[in-house]
Every structure is written in C-alpha cells, then in structure tokens.
Specification:
Blueprint lengths: L11 H8 L5 E4 L5 E2 L4 H13 L16 E2 H12 L7 E4 L8 E2 L4 H7 L7 H17 L10
Parallel strand pairs: 1-4, 2-5
Antiparallel strand pairs: 2-3
Length: 148
Amino acid sequence: MPCHAERDAPDRGRRRQILSGQDPAHIFGEGNEIRSFIALGDLVRGIRLAIESPDAVNTDFNLCRGKGITILGLAERIWRKLRPDDEFHYVSDTPYPYDVLNRVPDVRKAKAILGFEATTPLDAMLDEVIAWVRDEMEAGVLTSETRA
C-alpha cells in the first residue's frame, strides 16, 4: 500500500468519504497545501539502499517522489478516478491553524549518495490505495467509526 509518512494524517477519513459518495468533497482550508507522496515499495527500496550503503552511515535522507501536488489537486484527482463523468465539487472546512504549506522534501542527497529515485507515479499509488480502501470497506474493516 502506498505510504505517506510525514505524520499521522488527520485527513485519512476523507479518502473513505469520497469513496462512500460524499459530494461535495471536504478539504481542510483552501487545499493549497502542497504535499509529496511515496509508494511503500519505493520507500522500502530507499531504506534498503540506505542500510546497505556504507556512505549512508550517520546521515539522513528524504525518501519521496520530490514532486508536489496541492491537497485540492489530489482530491480532484481522486474524484476523477472514482467519478470520471461527474463535476468535481468541494467545500473548505476549517483549516489547521499551524499547518505547513509546502512539504516537498529535497531528494537530491538520496539520489547522489544512494542512487535512489522513487519511480511509482502518483496515479498508480492512488489506484492501489483506492482498491485497498474499497476492499477494506466491503470487508467491514473501515466504517464510519474507524479512522482510515
């Protein structure tokens, strides 16, 4: 499953809401925050490269795609995958008061030292996550009471 590990993302339930037919989609703030994501397979490969590289001892790396997308753009992309024939609608909910607007880490060091580049496109990650969330909802694991 694709992974975005910057923090425990409080908007996780929003993905389920769009899959459940929520219209309009709810976005914290205006959706202008920029985030970068990484597929779990890419992340694991980057960690393995760091473990195996003698040049990586006592250093840190940003492992991500290094490409950003606004939260609003992400929501619209998910919407288009789920409802390709429907117009995208959204409302802005109260934003987080201390949210960082741009979280796109610099990945040059990981490329230079480890030769690492995340290769999984965002659309492929979304397809995988959407299928996983859908399966979990159908199995009753993700409900309105769970947070995922």
